[in-house]
Amino acid sequence: MSTSPPHAAARPHWPRPSAWPVWVVPLLVLLVEFFGAMAAQHGATRDRAWDRGDGWGRGHGWGDGSQGYGITHLDALGFAIVLAGPALLLLRRRCPVPTLAATGLLTGLYFLRAYPYGPAFAAVGVAMLGAIVAGHRLVTWAGTAVSVAVYFGITALIGVPFDQRGKPGVLFPVEEPSVGGVSVVVGWSLAVLVTAELVRMTGQRAAERDRTRAEEERRQASEERLRMARELHDVLAHNISMINVQAGVALHLMDGDPEQARTALTAIKDASKEALTEMRSVIGALRAQGETAPRSPTAGLARLDDLLDRARSAGLTVDAETAGEPRPLPAGADLAAFRIVQESLTNVTRHAGPGPVTARVRIAYGEREVEVRVEDDGRGAPLLDDHRGGSGIRGMRERAAALGGTFDAGPRAGGGFAVRATLPLTGEPADAADPGDAGGADDGPGDPAERDGQ
Predict the structure, then answer these.
(1) Tell me, what's the pLDDT at 141?
(2) Do 250 and 193 touch, CB atoms closer than 8 A?
(3) 450 or 392: which leads in pLDDT
(4) What is the 3-state secondary structure (H, E, C) of the chain?
């Protein structure tokens, strides 16, 4: 019985930001905003020479000759805004829209107060990203557009000339809007929104890939469980059928022919041993962790003689014939051919009626296909309807169909029953291919192919 190969070890990688603890991003934003604001405040006043004689705010510029700008130095309100923005981001996953609205108001208040530029927009940028990724796209786009328009509308009404920005004694000493300032804010807003959309689409594609991969793994697991169930079913059906027949023979001959009864009991012992071996193989495969190769031989036509000997020990007369040149077959065709013969012989044992019964097994090797034919001359049920609850004939038909072959089963004109399957030879030979189906062990599965559907 084979087991699926273990998955390759996953490469270590950083978890996605969405998987980080909720406090990590707010902490990073806090550090960026706080130290950025302090650096911006220091830079705005560095080497600035104020010339009170020429009017407030007009001076000689930066030490290097460039023009500086006025600011309102960070006070208690300024520090509260710098701290409150990142703190609100702790709610970005549970309440993305309220978080966006609150951080937007705080950011607008920060700039209306003419505090140092710095990275004060970081908190609202993260909130915009979080809202779009959470699916609130329309609210975020519309809210951003309205907020930008309202902000510049307010600054157009209350703004002061740029050289008076941060003038003491004014509650909101913000500069008047300019083409450059509007362009920077609108450009930054669009950049954040577009980036957020790209992040959202990337996350959706990743989630879709994960869903597809999970569905594929579930499908493969379901197919593997179905295959193992079929193998286990075949194991029990074939061996238990043999045990049942031999037990009946032993009971019948116990008094009149003790030696023959002993032979039947020996056959029961061998069949039960085979059944236990098969079951251990199947169950071991189910329990295996990371096993890459089967621990027992793959069921195939190479073990056909053992299968025929066990059928003969059950009292059947079995004639075997091989046409063409025997050769290694692809693993799938090899296993299917073996199981079809096994199931057919199980059916003969159980349903052919009172003996003597002769079964004829013919394996014909063609260039591109192998034909399996099993016939008997029994006088059991003349019509085998596998739609009344049984799964033997249906299981054989499914095996052939899975390989793209054909399958026929029905009563023979002169009495008895015939099974014929044609299996195309595609893929690598069983001895060259990876053992994908170490089918359960020795005499492998045999669907309790009950010809009468029981």
Answers:
(1) 95
(2) no
(3) 392
(4) CCCCCCCCCCCCCCCCHHHCCCCHHHHHHHHHHHHHHHHHHHHHHCCCCECHHHCCCCECCCCCCCCCCCCCCCCHHHHHHHHHHHHHHHHCCCCHHHHHHHHHHHHHHHHHCCCCCCCCCHHHHHHHHHHHHCCCHHHHHHHHHHHHHHHHHHHHHHCECHHHCCCCCCCCCCECCCHHHHHHHHHHHHHHHHHHHHHHHHHHHHHHHHHHHHHHHHHHHHHHHHHHHHHHHHHHHHHHHHHHHHHHHHHHHCCCCHHHHHHHHHHHHHHHHHHHHHHHHHHHHHHCCCCCCCCCCCCCHHHHHHHHHHHHHCCCEEEEEEECCCCCCEHHHHHHHHHHHHHHHHHHHHHCCCCCCEEEEEEEECCCEEEEEEEECCCCCCCCCCCCCCCHHHHHHHHHHHCCCEEEEEECCCCCEEEEEEEECCCCECCCCCCCCCCCCCCCCCCCCCCCCC
CB 331 within 8 A of CB 437: yes
Beta bridge partners of 373: 362, 420
Of 184, 177, 86, 162, give the one whose Cα is nearest residue 127: 86
Q: Who has greater pLDDT, 440 or 227?
A: 227
Question: What are phi and psi for residue 329, nearest 5 degrees?
Answer: -105, 160
- The amino acid that residue 208 corresponds to is E
Write the CB contacts of 259 (distance below 8 Å, at least 6 apart in sequence). none
The model's pTM is 0.50
User: Under a CB-based contact definition with an 8 Å cutoff, are residues 186 and 147 in contact?
Assistant: no
CA 412 → CA 37, 375, 419, distances in Å? 94, 8, 10
Q: Find where tokens 């065709």 sit.
A: 333
**What is the per-residue pLDDT across 365-388, written as a single tens digit (0 to 9) for each?**
998 899 999 999 887 654 444 444
Q: Cα–Cα distance between 134 and 194 in angstroms, integer?
A: 15
User: What is the pLDDT at residue 196?
Assistant: 93
pLDDT band at residue 427 using 50, 70 and 90 as cut-offs: low
Amino acid at 342: Q
